[in-house]
Write a structure and sequence with these properties.
The chain is an alpha/beta fold. The protein has one domain (17-218): DHBP synthase (Alpha-Beta Complex). It is built from seven helices and ten strands. It has helices at residues 28-39, 61-71, 85-88, 97-106, 123-126, 140-149, 171-178, and strands spanning 17-20, 44-46, 53-55, 79-81, 111-116, 131-135, 153-157, 184-187, 197-200, 207-210. The protein has a ten-stranded mixed sheet, with helices on both faces. A hairpin with a 6-residue loop joins strand 2 and strand 3 (53-55). Helix 1 crosses helix 6 (140-149). The chain is globular. 44% of the residues are buried.
Length: 220
């Protein structure tokens, strides 16, 4: 199935919920409620082990459209969050032994790995390329959402208009800014201000695309 991205205006949320979750022990009832929002095509903002992210169920084309309009980006620029390595293998071509060993040591962690996508990745995410960025963050909140949802969630960073701060870190200020645009803002405490390290593993060598919070040299 091929999804078509249109350029219609940003769809505004009817009402936005501000939900507090603790990473160490996120409440199951709240997690299940957020998952139901995702299944209904909702867009959420959530904490990761680096910066706050905005996303949706990666298989919901209309929700992906909303994320792209809010962030003024294209689907091919989006990455997605998996629960663990075994889930990653469902959406990528077979990993080489060196890549698998590095990812096994580095994940969960502050890395985005660019991998060769297989046919299970919705066309809306890789229509113009054959690779996809995948994360397994070291944060229990998004991973538990993915586990309950049964499919990955989109992730793209929330940038701040302040060039010094660069990334939005205060969940209450994030809510004030996005409450008309998204369905849920998860308050997982203050976020970081350094994004994930991006490593391209689609070729024969590890290529550092962006140096962020993670040090990939520790695992090579």
């Amino acid at each position: 199935m091929v999804f078509v991205i249109t350029c219609s205006p940003v769809i505004r949320a009817m009402s936005c919920e501000f939900i507090r979750l603790y990473e160490e022990n996120p409440e199951e009832g709240k997690l299940d409620h957020i998952v139901s929002v995702l299944r209904d095509g909702g867009v959420i903002i959530y904490p990761t082990d680096t910066v706050y992210g905005i996303g949706c169920d990666f298989s919901n084309a209309k929700a992906v459209q909303r994320v792209c309009r809010i962030k003024e980006t294209t689907p091919s620029a989006l990455s997605f969050i998996c629960y663990d390595l075994s889930e990653i293998s469902e959406y990528t071509k077979q990993l080489s032994t060196p890549v698998f060993k590095v990812m096994k040591k580095a994940l969960p962690g502050p890395f985005t790995f660019i991998l060769n996508a297989n046919s299970q990745v919705p066309k809306v995410l890789n229509a113009k390329k054959k690779t996809v960025g995948i994360r397994v963050p070291n944060n229990n909140i998004p991973r538990q959402l993915v586990r309950r949802l049964g499919s990955p969630i989109i992730t793209t960073s929330l940038r701040d208009e302040d060039e010094v701060i660069e990334y939005s870190t205060d969940p209450e200020l994030i809510f004030e800014k996005y409450e008309k645009l998204v369905d849920v803002v998860i308050d997982g405490g203050y976020g970081g201000n350094v994004p994930s390290t991006i490593v391209d593993c689609s070729g024969d060598e590890f290529v550092l695309v962006r140096e962020g919070l993670g040090d990939i040299n520790q695992y090579l």
